[in-house]
Design goal:
The chain has 443 residues and is an alpha/beta fold. 26% of the residues lie in helices and 21% in strands. It has 3 domains: 236 residues, Metallo-beta-lactamase, Chain A (4-Layer Sandwich); 95 residues, Rhodanese-like domain (Oxidized Rhodanese, domain 1), CATH 3.40.250; 88 residues, 3-Layer(aba) Sandwich (Oxidized Rhodanese, domain 1). Helix 1 links the parallel strand 3 and strand 4. The model has no long low-confidence stretch (mean pLDDT 96). This is MBL fold hydrolase.
């Protein structure tokens, strides 16, 4: 038996291939939308993809399970609780998939979602590994607050937190040497404080993972629910899309219009992904600066709501093609009204004067774009308005316009996006400045 891990660093997402001991058959777990790496790997191993297991309907990325089924004929397995619209075979407690001498056993492990499963791998009569989806992470466990209003099966976060407590303790009954393979690593918003490691063991997690420590259920629920990160706007959309099954990856990308229209639609958002230095020196009026970076998909789906059409701009053709693909990984390609290379524009962003600000802080309205937990742990400026970036477009009315506005975050990425949002929303009313990397002088 062989286990291969695939990593999408931008989404902090792990997917897996399990090969039988003869290498002729392969089962995938939680595949990403771009199925080419799995097809290439199967061809290299001279293996046939015979099954695809979805541990739950994912919120943070679009899965390629339906396209893999359509391309290879492989059976899709998911819990009956998902009530999936795609062709599938249910896979719940007591169900087993045989792969040579390997047996894949379904365990229902609700907590992150009511329909989550884990997959216990038995080889020659011994449990050797467990694929935990978003239930047990390395160093943490999945958040329980994503399914209160999403899908046909909704459950309150307190109920899911209690279910998580029980699911984790069930997983802890596995032998200490059993390998743990989760669906995400550090950087995901599906948990709070994941480790940088890519695999672990049940024994190591029982020793170091806070969520597996001995504690009363009510204390666990309290600890799990507090200080969860924000929920990006696209999460509920992706859950529903994954329950239906997404359009084939390359076919979806091919529908994106890749040319600049003669006249831009004034009702469509403009997402300019160029570095902030270029953006500030000249951009299209009203453009939003969501920079091409490691978490582009997350911020795009946190600022732009599902169904909101937008133009996608990049600094060159190669970057543009890459960003279209990354946009499709969260299912947003269908909202792109046009994708083209930016040649700048007539609107500029003013320069932030550190000395003037330091001497006259009272002359500015300071908007802190950090999350509430960051602000609580590291307060920076008295009387600053705390409006996290994902909420800014909806809360612009809270910002007074009687003096210049200065926007900051913790490093400059979020404030670049935030200042561009306010520059559009408050145009003609007040001057908007971005503190950018200068915030380091006040940390």
């Amino acid at each position: 038996m062989k286990i291969e891990q695939f990593v999408d660093e931008n989404l902090s997402q792990f997917s897996y291939a399990i090969l039988s001991e003869w290498g002729s058959s392969m089962i995938l777990i939680d595949p990403a939308r771009d199925i080419k790496p799995y097809l290439d790997y199967a061809a290299k191993q001279h293996a046939q993809i015979t099954g695809i297991i979805e541990t739950h309907p994912h919120a943070d990325f679009v899965s390629g399970h339906l396209e893999l089924h359509q391309t290879t004929g492989a059976t899709i397995y998911s819990s009956k609780l998902v009530k999936a619209a795609y062709p599938h075979q249910t896979f719940d407690d007591g169900d087993v998939i045989t792969l040579g001498k390997v047996r894949l056993k379904a365990w229902n492990t609700p907590g992150h979602s009511p329909d989550s499963i884990s997959v216990v791998v038995e080889h020659e009569g011994k449990n050797v590994a467990v694929f935990t989806g978003d239930t047990l992470f390395i160093g943490d466990c999945g958040r329980p607050d994503l399914r209160e209003t999403t899908g046909t099966l909704t459950v309150k976060r307190e109920e899911l937190a209690a279910a998580m407590y029980r699911s984790l303790r069930r997983l802890a009954t596995l032998n200490d040497e059993v390998l743990v393979y989760a669906a995400h690593g550090a950087g995901t918003l599906c948990g709070k404080s994941l480790s940088d490691a890519t695999e672990s063991t049940i024994g190591a997690e029982k020793s170091a993972n806070w969520s597996l420590q001995e504690m009363a259920e009510d204390r666990f629920i309290q600890a799990l629910l507090e200080d969860q990160p924000f929920i990006p706007k696209y999460f509920p959309y992706d859950v529903d899309l994954n329950k239906q099954g997404a359009e084939a990856f390359m076919a979806a990308i091919a529908t994106v219009p890749q040319e600049k229209p003669h006249r831009l639609n004034a009702n469509m958002a403009i997402v300019d992904t160029r570095p902030q230095q270029q953006f500030k020196q000249g951009h299209l009026p009203g453009a939003l600066n969501i920079q091409n970076g490691a978490k582009f998909e997350t911020w795009l789906g946190s600022i732009i709501a599902p169904g909101e059409p937008f133009y996608l701009l990049a600094e060159n053709e190669q970057v543009l093609r890459d960003l279209i693909r990354r946009t499709a990984k969260i299912g947003y390609e269908k909202f792109i009204g046009g994708a083209f290379v930016s040649d700048g524009g007539s609107e500029f962003t003013g320069n932030f004067d550190v000395e003037n600000f330091s001497a006259h802080k009272g002359d500015y309205t300071i908007v802190d774009m950090r999350n509430s937990t960051e602000v609580r742990e590291h307060p920076l400026f008295e009387n600053a308005l705390t409006i996290p970036l994902p909420e800014l477009r909806e809360r612009v009315a809270e910002i007074p316009t009687n003096k210049s506005v200065v926007v900051h975050c913790a490093g400059g990425y979020r404030s670049a996006a935030g200042s561009s949002i306010l520059q559009k929303a408050l145009s003609g009313k007040v001057k908007v400045l971005d503190m950018g990397e200068a915030v380091s002088l006040f940390l």
